[in-house]
Amino acid sequence: xxxxxxxxxxxxVVVAQxxxxxxxxxxxxxxxxxAIFFAIPFITLFMTSLQQPVPGKIGKYQAGFExxxxxxxxxxxxxxxxxxxxYAGIATLLALIIAYPLxxxxxxxxxxxxxxxxxxxxxxxxxSFLLRTYAWRTILSDEGxxxxxxxxxxxxxxxxxxxxxxxVVAGLTYNFLPFMILPLYAALEKIDPRFIEAASDxxxxxxxxxxxxxxxxxxPGVVAGTLLTFIPAAGDYINAExxxxxxxxxxxxxxxxxxIEFRDYPTASALSFVLMAVILVMVFTYIRRAGTxxxx
Amino acid sequence: xxxxxxxxxxxxxxxxxxxLFIPIAVVAILSFNNPTGxxxxxxxxxxxxxxxxxxxxxxxxxxxxxxxxIGIIATIVATALGTMIAFALVRYRFRGRSTTNxxxxxxxxxxxxxxxxxxxxxxxxxxxxxxxxxxxxxxxMFIISFVVVTVKARLQGLDPRLEExxxxxxxxxxxxxxxxxLPLVAPGIAGAALLGFSLSFDDFxxxxxxAGTLVxxxxxxxxxxxxxxxxxxxxxxxxxxxVALVIVLGSQLVNYRRRRKxxxx
Lengths: 296, 265
Prior knowledge:
The structure holds 2 protein chains of 2 kinds. Chain A is mainly alpha-helical.
């Protein structure tokens, strides 16, 4: 398949955009929904995080301005916070390493099999997230082949994988892998093969071509993919709950337990608010440094 | 050795694809298991009991039906709202575009635990009773953005000359929309609805925060995980996986055939 013969897909000509009331009417219901059930809840979350307990009544809170809720929550739960970001960071890096070859293969060598290969990437998400995670209990079990293999090499500090941080990171890596593959594919697919040909015509080695041409051009996909993997991984508590021990709890576990079981709404809200703030700051600095604004 | 070196990339790609399907194979295989204890984690004995008696364990089927009902309602509403937004974004000029874009992007960049807990904080403060409706509201909220992105991509990829041609042939705006635009965008809307349903059906975290005592299929699995997941759950999940795969592969095949037909004429 000669790349020069492949016709460029027709670039969509900008459609004359109309300015009329219709635009606002189309936007109104959906945006109102998002405003009421996505944006306003952040305000109630913040207000809840400042509430103080009603004296004498357990589980009842009243409006207040207890900034100390934040200090107390962070003092108690900073290890889980730190652990969440470390686990999510390792999982994101592993996902990038695993996803890149597959995304590259589908984009560059997939040919007419591309749509089918992409379906195969998405297909695992059709099976229940919880059950897929639970299945790793079978795969990584203490008597299983994977644990035995690593034990034979004396690589495991606790002589097991299940109920350790390693299992949690493995679960996170697996579960969010499609979120890494798809944006990487989208970016790699846009690369004009002639650039890569030009590099090899100019006697660049395969490694140099990758380092100087392919990798830089795929950066928008790397940025989108790492964000789409890191964010849900940092907030996840399913993997930590099903695959880890109580020593591997992440911040999501703490928020869930405090909100639903302990009914300590202010502490849980404060933790939730801090998690969101940290992630927003990270996202915006990251996007700015990587220089890709167009993510939607 | 030379074969391996030359096809290294392809081999790695296949290995990664296999890796993606290993847990699903485990789920499917264990649906034919007859576990000795409560926990269906290791292979004991072949049995089709779970498949012939899918609703044999109390709560499994009712939670499954609940999830399907919630998924259908949430998908219909979110697809309608999201499609309208996508049309507005691509076809109309309006004030506040960057705020709109931000409000659509943020739900996709917010951890579920934050969305779930903040919505619960809202419902608690309003003393709104938790249950089916709060879960539906939550699902619509987080699905809209995915619908917008999917439909928007399809709309932007449309060749504007097709609509121009309709107008040149004296079709009024309504007829152009009905007979040209909508049929062309329909696959995008269908894809968005399918994505929306699968997101809703499989959602655990946001649902769990806002469900109260309601039990959806994922919430049932979560509860069962502590005391042993019934084999029926594996069977139902395998069934869902196969049905979804058939639908998606089938639509791909239809698309492929249609494209080839268009190319040959």
